[in-house]
Amino acid sequence: MARKGFELIPSARRLITSLRDMGYDFAAAVADVVDNSIEAKASRIAVDVHFDGDDSSVRIADNGVGMTPAQIREALRYGAERDYDTTEALGKFGLGLKTASMSQCQRLTVASRSSTERADIYAHAWDLDHVVETDRWEIIEVPRNEQPEVLRKPLLEGTGTVVLWQRLDRILGYKHPYGQMAKKRLSVMCRELEVHLGMVFHRYMTGEGVTRKVRLTLNGNAIKPWDPFARGEPATQSLEKVTLQYDHEATAGEIVIQPFVLPHQDDFSSPQARDEAAGPDKWNKQQGFYIYRANRMIQSGGWCNLRTLDEHTKLARVAISFRPALDEAFRINVAKMKVQLPQQLKEQFEKAIGPLIKISQSTYRRAARSAPHAVPPAPRPPAPSPVPIPLAHQDQTLRSDVVMASASRAGYVADSAGPRTASRLWTMEELRASAEAIATTEELPIISAVFKRLARRLDDE
Ligand SMILES: Nc1ncnc2c1ncn2[C@@H]1O[C@H](COP(=O)(O)OP(=O)(O)OP(=O)(O)O)[C@@H](O)[C@H]1O
Ligand SMILES: [Mg+2]
C-alpha cells in the first residue's frame, strides 16, 4: 500500500536568508555570474561597479544568447533545471546565479533579450524584503516602463543578459554607506575583483583550450589575463606533462598535470614581470596547484594537503585540468571555490610532482646562494669554464633525469644561447648544486666532502 506523503516546502524567508551565507566573497560571487555569461556564448562581459551610497550597484552585462521570459524565470529558480554537457559545462548546481548574487545584495534583477531583431527586454527580480515579508518563493516582474536605463542600455544593440545587484548590504558593510570609508572599501574590492577575474578566466581571455575567446572589462577597462606560470618569461621551465586516468565507480576521465618552475627573481626579464608573476597572495602562498575545471580556475595555489607551503618550493606551480565529468572525484563545491584531489590518485599526484619539487628547490637555492641584489640584476659573469668530469662520474651521476633536468635548467637558462643538452660538460659548481638540491640534510656534509676530494683530485691531475 502506498504510504501517504507530506510535501514540506522550505520556508522561503528562512532558506533564502540562510543561503546568503554559503561562503562566497565578492570576487567569487561575480565570477559565478560570469560563468553563466560564458556558457551563454558571450564574447564580451562587462562588469560595472557603481558607488552611490544606498543606490550603489553592481552590473554584469553580457552579449550572449539571452533568455526568453520563461527562461529568465527558470534561471531565477533555486535549483534551476537544465542539461549539462559533461565536457565543458561551467554550471552544475542550478544555484549559482541566485546564491552568488544574494550573498552580496538584497535585490537581484535579471534582464534579458533573446531576439536579434526585436529589442524586447524582459526582467524579473528577487527582492529579499519581498521574500521576508511574504515568506513565498516569489519573484517580481519588472515591466518595461519600470526598467531603469542601467538594465536596458547594454541590451539595446543585440541579444544578451544583464544581472543587476542592488542594496549591496554585504558588499558595502555599512548601514549608511555614504561615507568615504564605504567608498574606499568598494574601490579596494574592485581592485581585488579585477585580479581575481583576470586569474580565474585567463584561459578564456586568451583563448587557451577553449572554443570562444572572451573579453572582460571592469568599469570600462579591459581586464588583463594573469598567467600563473609566467609562460612569457624565457627562464620559466615547463616540465613534462603527465596524464592520469581516473576510473572509479561510475566516474571516469583524464586529469592533465602540467608542472612549471618559475624563474628565480633574478632571472625575470624585468622587475615588473617578477612582481606580476608573484600573484595576488604573493610567492609563498601562490605555489602549488592551479586547478581548472573546464578551463575555469577553481583553485589557485596550495598543495591540497599533499605538501605544506615551503619557501624552498615557492617557484613550483602546477596546472591540473579536468572536465566536469570528474566533478564527483574532485568534490567541487557550489561556490566553485574549492576542490579536493581524488584520494585514489594521491600517490600518483605525489609521483607526478616529484621532479618539479626537486627542480624548484634547486632553482630556489641557486637564488639563495647568489648574493642578493636588486632586480634587474647586474649581468651575470660568464659561466665558469666547464671542468671535464671523468666519464665514470658522468655515468653514475648524470644518468638521473632529475639531476640532468635540474642542473641544465637551473644552471644558465637566462644566459644560455640555446638549449643545453644532457651530453654537455658540466661545471663542478653545477653538479654540486644539483646534488645538494636533492640531498637530505644528512647527505649534505657527505656531498661537500666528496666534492672537495674530487676538486683536489682534478687539481692533481
Ligand atoms: N547570462 C546568462 N545568459 C543566459 N542564460 C543564463 C545566464 N545566466 C543564467 N542563465 C541560465 O540560468 C540557469 C541557472 O543559472 P545558475 O547559475 O543559477 O545555475 P547553473 O549555472 O545551471 O549551475 P551553477 O549553480 O553550478 O552555477 C543557467 O543554467 C542558464 O540556463
Ligand atoms: Mg551558474
Secondary-structure map:
Blueprint: H1 12-18, H2 26-39, E1 44-50, E2 57-62, H3 69-75, H4 96-102, E3 107-113, E4 122-127, H5 128-134, E5 140-141, H6 149-152, E6 160-166, H7 169-172, H8 180-200, H9 202-206, E7 215-218, E8 221-222, E9 237-238, E10 242-248, E11 251-261, H10 271-278, H11 282-286, E12 288-293, E13 296-300, E14 316-322, H12 327-330, H13 346-369, H14 391-398, H15 401-412, H16 428-438, H17 443-460
Parallel strand pairs: 1-7, 12-14
Antiparallel strand pairs: 1-2, 2-6, 3-4, 3-6, 4-5, 7-8, 9-11, 10-11, 11-14, 12-13
Helix pairs in contact: 1-5, 2-4, 2-8, 13-15, 13-16, 15-16, 16-17
Bound molecules: adenosine-5'-triphosphate and magnesium ion.
Mean pLDDT: 86
In DSSP terms (H or I, runs of 4 or more residues), the helix count works out at: 17
Question: Uncertain runs with pLDDT below 50, 5 residues or more?
Answer: 371-424
Distance between the termini: 98 Å
Assign the CATH topology of the largest domain.
Heat Shock Protein 90
Q: Please report the first level of CATH classification, the CATH class of the largest domain.
A: Alpha Beta
Total number of distinct structural domains: 3
What composes the largest sheet? 8 strands, mixed
Number of strands: 14
| Hetero compounds | adenosine-5'-triphosphate, magnesium ion
Helix content: 25-40%
* Order of strands across the main sheet: 5-4-3-6-2-1-7-8
CATH superfamily of the largest domain: Histidine kinase-like ATPase, C-terminal domain
Q: What fraction of the residues are assigned to beta strands by DSSP?
A: 15-25%
Structural class: alpha+beta
Radius of gyration equals 27 Å
Overall, the morphology is elongated
The CATH architecture term of the largest domain is: 2-Layer Sandwich
